[in-house]
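Internal tracking record. Fields below are filled automatically when a chain is submitted to the structure queue. Please do not edit lines marked as system-generated. If the sequence contains nonstandard residues, flag them in the REMARKS field before resubmitting.
Queue: standard
Priority: normal
Entity type: single polypeptide chain
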Amino acid sequence: MAPKMKVVILGANGTMGAPSGAVFAGAGFDVVMLARDLEKAKTALGGAQSAARAEAVGDNITLGTYDDLERTVAEADLIFESLAEDLSLKKIFFDRVDKCRRPDSLVATGSSGLSIADMARGRSDSFRKNFLGLHLFNPPQVIVGTEVIPHLETDPKVTSNACAMLTSRLGRKVIVTRDRPAFVGNRVGFKVLNECAALTEEHGVAFIDYVVGPHTGRAMAPLATIDLVGWDVHKAIVDNVFANTEDEAHPSFRLPDFMQRGIERGQLGDKTPKQGGFYRKDGKSTEVLDPKTGAYKALEKPTAIPFVEQMKQFNREGRYQQAFKVFADASGSEADLMRRVILGYVSYALNRVGEVAESSADVDSIMSFGFNWVPPTVIVDLLGAKNIVAMFDRYKLLVPPVVEKAASKDGKLYHGGMLDYGRTLVG
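SYSTEM-GENERATED OUTPUT FOLLOWS
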């Protein structure tokens, strides 16, 4: 019998460290979870068991501190870094890893969008060849979408072996993405989320989550999603993209000022229940943020809008074509706002093909299995490529070449089935 693969996790008590440990341990790997002290490591073990919903996952986990790094890394097949999104901090740990790792061991960062090449720069030849990004989406024990991000010096065999391991041993839905800020999933997803956050200053939180809710093709409403992710994580992602890219949607990545003020007050979303985020629990009731004042007030359900309710009903019945006919035909400012956001998602996502993603299928895969959002090409097919090109023009959105090509041939873009679409529609 082949020996078990040994995995060392750095930053085990972080947001992604514990659940990532659960994923590896649940697949039968021997996992060593390292944290600053044993108490934090024990907390990480509890987090891993909770994520796996099984205490037995702890049978494959050993705990340690960073004092054990050199000894445990020397024995590891995979070193998985899950520290905070701080390049300087990561480099300190990679310095230590480079000095003690086996030449054939794989080193992976779980970064959600920092430069893989910057992390590898200055390391040994062996480190650089065996280093890549391995971006799991939160929570990884539930969401199987995964991005593998090689840099220019990553050995292609290392990339293919990592993809094979993730697919066959961990059951992940894997895409390989280029080393660009935020990669594919977060680049596309947080453009939409940040745009929705900015719209709350004019329209209010509850209204945006209602009009751009699950009926438009996502498992959760956008602002509730930001609260789940954490305002601090959201800021790190959009700030990185805003500082390091220059594309057609660049202004959409500017963090709203009210969110910066909220972060300074300690409002980070679900992880700070007393301070809140866009929403805050007050006993059994829920309060909602007023972005203009920073105050909270009792959440009131928005007045029902007919086209939203119609789309919800059609989606519940699996009549997706009819739902998006309502999307296309609805009149009024609310419908225009919804279309601008959702068509903006489709345009931006498919314009990343060739820049960050290899194909529209890769974009579809990560938005579906990483974000639980409807694949953008499904929306193209439901509306019709020619029709959506006209709608892009109407809203002054850049027409992706893949859509232009489909419109010229009156063809389809999506290669999966409608069940993939339907599973994201819970509205």
